[in-house]
Amino acid sequence: MHELGIAQSALERALEEMRKAGCSRVSRIVLRVGRFSGVDAESLRFAFEAVRAETPAAEAALQIDEIPPTVHCAPCDADFAPTSGPPFACPRCRTWSGTIVHGRELDLIRVEMT
Amino acid sequence: MSDQPRTTPPEVIVVDVREPDDTPPPPPGDHLTGTPVRVVDLAARLLDKNDVQAAANREIFRARGLRVLNLVSSPGAGKTTLLQRTLDALAPEIRCAVLVGDLETDNDAQRLRRPGVPVAQITTGGACHLDASMIQRGLDALSLPDTRLLFIENVGNLVCPASFDLGENRRVTLLSCTEGEDKPLKYPPIFTSAHVILLTKIDVAEALGFDRATALQNIRRINPHAEVIELSSRSGEGMERWLAYLRGMVA
Question: Which residue range(s) make up the domain with A33?
Fold first, then answer.
């Protein structure tokens, strides 16, 4: 639902990097998106196609890398990779945990330009 | 089966399951002139703008001695009614103010008007959540001398408000008995990010066949650390615990 705003900030940041580097076109943008970031990749692609039009990124490809989630278990003091959820149960001690270590990422990690 | 030996091998069918590469082909001449591709690696959080404004809001709140609650829930979970009862009980002893967000109308702000309680309606005109800059503009519209508690009633939506930090001290998520016991499992982010989870409309729980034990168990599974309070704004049951929590915030 807020993918449009996210696509917009990704684009603005990429164009800023492009200007800083003295380039004139953005050819690829790479995002790192966690499964629990609340962002839908399809909607994000759709939104990106809308916002990139008539900008120096009009032909830029959007690459979305999904981050496998990890969750922290306090009693075991260890991280585990949840197979489903939330909620997440520690595979070792079965305690429920809501402490997501990785999976909420929503980062712009690479801009390719010419 | 034919006795004739087959002379032509069957056509090979190719199923390409690779992700389509939508990188545009280089424009003519690029490969000849060798225009270099510049690559910049970074780690920029994409809610950046909102996070920066949320941090600024947090500073404003601290400087003014304001404690701020962000109330989130589905539409109709009882945010406005809870705030009406809360202001009735609390406004005479603690100075309160309210920012309320909706897509259209100032109906909720009208319902929340009380003597000595500044209320501002933020009409988002379609946006499905409040963001930190809307809060800043709302704050500018309110006169807040000596105000201790600011309630932000977010747009009724169980999804997007979870992603937008407003700079609040406490996020309060309401789950009403009319919504069913499994909402926390179906909409985890808004429940995992809550400091307080209010189970509302418990006066009608029994009539609806609402299973409180299951609902509480689901809440605990999603968020083991939140303060959970069961209450009814209409009957008043559980309200004292909620009010005590709020008094504790400004003590």
Answer: 3-69+102-113
pLDDT digits (tens, 9 = 90+) for B178-199: 999 999 999 988 999 999 999 9
pLDDT at A2 (0 to 100): 72
Is the CB of residue B215 less than 8 Å from the CB of residue B175? Answer: yes
Contacts for B51-59: CB closer than 8 Å, 24+ residues apart: B51/B132, B51/B165, B53/B131, B53/B132, B53/B133, B53/B136, B53/B167, B54/B132, B54/B164, B54/B165, B54/B166, B54/B167, B55/B167, B56/B132, B56/B136, B56/B167, B57/B132, B57/B135, B57/B136, B57/B139, B57/B166, B57/B167, B58/B167
Q: What are phi and psi of A44, to 5 degrees?
A: -65, -40
A19 near B CB under 8 A:
no
Q: Is residue A16 domain-resident?
A: yes
Reported confidence tier of residue B98, pLDDT bands at 50, 70, 90: very high
Task: Quote the CATH superfamily of domain B48-250.
Answer: P-loop containing nucleotide triphosphate hydrolases (3.40.50.300)
Q: Which positions in chain B touch A13 (Cβ < 8 Å)?
A: 44, 46, 48
For A98, the closest of B43, B47, B222 (CB atoms) is B222
ipTM of the complex as predicted = 0.75
Tokens found for residue A81: 């990779």
Tally C-beta pairs within 8 A across A and B: 98
